[in-house]
Amino acid sequence: MSLGVASPASHGGDFFATTHYSDWVRGSLRAMASRPNAIALYDSTISEPSELLAGLVATSLVTRADDGGPRLSSRYVSVFANGNRFLVDALCARYGETPDRLQTTTGVTGGLQLILRALVKPGERVLVENPGFTLLSNLALEAGAVVDGLDRPAPDFSIDPAHLAARLTPDTRLVILTNPHNPTGVFLDHATLKAVAKAADAAGALVVVDEVYGDFARRPSAGMAAKLAPNIISLASLTKVFGLFALKCGWMVADPQVLARIRAGQTEGDAGVSKLTHAVAAHVMENADTFDRHWQAIMTATTPVLHRHASAMQAEGLIDGAVPAAGCLYFPRVIGVTDTRALARHLWNQVDLLVAPGEYFGLAGHVRVGYAGDADTLDRGLTRLHAGLRAWRAVQGR
Predict the structure, then answer these.
(1) Residue 331 contacts by C-beta under 8 Å, 6 or more apart in sequence?
(2) Average pLDDT along the chain, 398 residues, taken 10 residues at a time
(3) Which fold has domain 54-63+73-287?
(4) CATH tag, 21-48+291-397
């Protein structure tokens, strides 16, 4: 299956008609350009800390030589062998890992592509959670895998290891999960992940855990999921928690033997890794406390706003679903609504608001709300959501 971009004209300019979430986002960005008062509540990443990044580049990446001229810092090194060694060391210090268990990548997408190319042959099977982030299953399909679904049922969206075991086949090579879960924000504890790994191991499968939201939900020093079992591969990046999507910097953590298999199966490595951006990333991770304080301040401001509005809408019987304990995603069920794409179109047309319909994540009747941006904008956006849901209910005669 291709992730090709749909032409806006192919849907008559209606970006809600597209079947791909990435196309919907592209269409929404084009549409918002002509609506200066519109608010998007679907963003799933911390707002980019542009000033912090600019200051870091200005003071750390470029230094002065003895003759007073500019030169790039000592972190500007080759990434060809096994990534930027300073970045690797900083990541290992943060997550309690060792260099033989960590490989840098262009991001979670790049890391997953390496894993799929190395470990899954065309026609073999990959088990992917549902609801979920469709890019993960699309990447597996593009690699030639057969994709099977693993239900994460509402309202708790957890995983039943016995159900997982029943979904595995002799041809299943990978189980792909997100933790915290995209789109719901639910966090799987260590006991559940260990049980998942045990069930997968009995079938000879590996478990890939996308932990791009992980630092929202646990202290980095607690380590990544790959520490829990030798058949777990962890993936993460600077994109979501740090908001540094421009750096295209990610990493995978796994048992050294598993990493050796991935490297052997993809001898060219990750061709997209940039020497320059990973040098910047090394400086970022060596100053991670500064960037941690940035996202923590944002979430401290926005989380109470979400709780207040969610409680009010729940009290009116408009939505249900608990706000996750951590993270920046909320995936409430809209009570009485089965076509959330139609609802989202209504909110866009009537109150200049964008939320992501659950259809794009495999579960109609829900919408995904992101709350890691500006608190005042979030407040105004959720006020519009509340008003829009009331109006929708009135129009539908309920």
Answers:
(1) 131, 157, 183, 184, 185, 321, 358, 361, 366, 367, 368, 369
(2) 35 79 94 95 95 94 80 91 93 97 95 96 98 96 97 96 97 98 96 98 98 96 96 98 96 97 85 91 97 97 98 98 95 97 96 97 97 97 98 84
(3) Aspartate Aminotransferase; domain 2 (3.40.640)
(4) 3.90.1150.10
